[in-house]
Design a protein that fits this description.
Number of strands: 3
Distance between the termini: 121 Å
Strand order of the largest sheet: 1-3-2
Shape: rod-shaped
Radius of gyration: 39 Å
Structural class: alpha+beta
Order of helices and strands: HHHHEHEE
Helix content: 55-70%
Largest sheet: 3 strands, antiparallel
């Protein structure tokens, strides 16, 4: 009996020893794997590749941002050039219409230009319509009148917008509030800012006179 008990005891001790050795081996393997991972990421070659990748991504973003801002500038410049050309063309049409020897004929020509959209600038349209109405009634605006002033501000917008387009929107908004009145743009300006990513945004402010 004693020999059997000793043998069982010995087997139990050996099993515990084997189990402990197995656990120690697992820990060693885990430590080696962790060390290998640290070595891989601390390897100069790997670090240089990671740094180069980050730099390339940064340069690509900067190039994209510069390109986007450049497109916005070009779009704004082109819009301004189109506006100038439109202003010149409309001024020439008005001058040509007013060359007529007959005032009635000149008025009809101006009405025709407005009706067919050849005078597209809303501010100029309103001024001409106010003039033609006063002429038709045989009256002129009293110098003592105090016209109402209204302001309009757009939200912050990206590139590709311009003051004229936004003030035309503002004029429509003001005109809805004052039906039957003439809304004239008196002044406008813009504000700009850069967000945390370097993108430029614009805000347009327009001042109107309501008659």
């Amino acid at each position: 009996m004693e020999n059997k008990e000793l043998e069982l005891r010995r087997l139990e001790l050996e099993e515990k020893k084997t189990e402990q050795e197995y656990l120690v081996r697992l820990k060693e393997i885990g430590l080696k794997e962790a060390d290998a991972r640290r070595s891989r990421w601390s390897n100069p070659l790997v670090l240089s590749i990671v740094a180069a990748t980050i730099a390339a991504a940064g340069n690509a973003y900067i190039s994209w941002l510069n390109g986007s801002n450049q497109l916005a500038v070009e779009s704004t410049r082109n819009a301004a050039l189109r506006e100038i050309e439109q202003e010149k063309a409309e001024a020439e049409r008005i001058l040509e219409a007013t060359k007529s020897s007959s005032p009635g004929d000149a008025e009809e020509k101006l009405k025709f230009l407005i009706a067919v959209g050849l005078i597209a600038n809303p501010n100029r349209q309103a001024a001409l319509e106010a003039y033609l109405t006063s002429e038709a009634r045989g009256t002129a605006s009293s110098s003592g009148d105090s016209p109402l002033t209204e302001g309009y501000a757009s939200g912050w917008l990206g590139g590709g917008n311009n003051q004229l387009d936004q003030c035309n929107i503002g004029r429509a908004v003001v005109a809805q509030k004052h039906p039957g009145k003439y809304v004239l743009l008196k002044s406008s300006y813009e504000q700009s800012r850069r967000d945390i990513f370097g993108r430029v945004e614009y805000r347009y402010l327009c001042n109107f006179e309501v008659r």
